[in-house]
Amino acid sequence: DAGVTQSPTHLIKTRGQHVTLRCSPISGHKSVSWYQQVLGQGPQFIFQYYEKEERGRGNFPDRFSARQFPNYSSELNVNALLLGDSALYLCASTILTGTGDSPLHFGNGTRLTVT
Amino acid sequence: DQQVKQNSPSLSVQEGRISILNCDYTNSMFDYFLWYKKYPAEGPTFLISISSIKDKNEDGRFTVFLNKSAKHLSLHIVPSQPGDSAVYFCAASPLNDYKLSFGAGTTVTVRA
């Protein structure tokens, strides 16, 4: 079975530019979440989407946005890039069972470098 | 505000011995706890979880213990193997809330 796939794997952008990161969830998973991992820290929650609707948003500025498509894939967009946006961006999917016992399954991430 | 804390950034253990990783949390609303393992250049891989109605969950060589009164959980790996060398993250969330809060991770090195 294919796991969570993310593209691209690496990306280099300049300050002020815009970036779009893409994610395909595991087949059958309808929920997608995005996390940012800065070196030396644990992943930080950015967004969660379920059935194309935003279900949660972390403490990130409005420069960060996302959406989920009818096939449950997702995009994360970041505008006006700052040096501090350099990080590993992780996408995760899950089956929402309603009992809270479904773990997130992560992709390998997109390494974004802002220069 | 770091709601999940892993106070040991690294742990070195001899092959065959037990690895014990610790995690503390501050949010009393957390009801679901997970451990993830991460190799370089890969995403975190789910290892084991526990809900607040239990105090222990075991899966093969991995056992997670939860002490809700102390807001503390631990992961035991027995016996430790060279392939266990990785970064381990503790994570937590309220029940039915899929926003995970992660600790900063503990790097485990298993010596031959």
Task: Describe what you observe in this structure.
The complex is a heterodimer of chains A (115) and B (112). With 115 residues, chain A is mainly β. Chain A has no helices and eleven strands. In chain A, strands 2, 4, 5, 6, 9, 10 and 11 form a seven-stranded mixed beta sheet that branches. In chain A, strands 1-3-8-7 form a four-stranded antiparallel beta sheet, with no helix packed on it. Chain A is globular, with a radius of gyration of 14 Å. The termini of chain A are far apart. Chain B starts with a strand and ends with a strand. Chain B contains no helices and eleven strands. Chain B is globular, with a radius of gyration of 13 Å. With 112 residues, chain B is mainly beta. Chain A binds chain B through residues 4, 31, 33, 35, 40-45, 48, 55-56, 58, 90, 92, 94, 96, 98-109, and chain B through 4, 31-32, 34, 36, 41-46, 49, 51, 89, 91, 93-105.
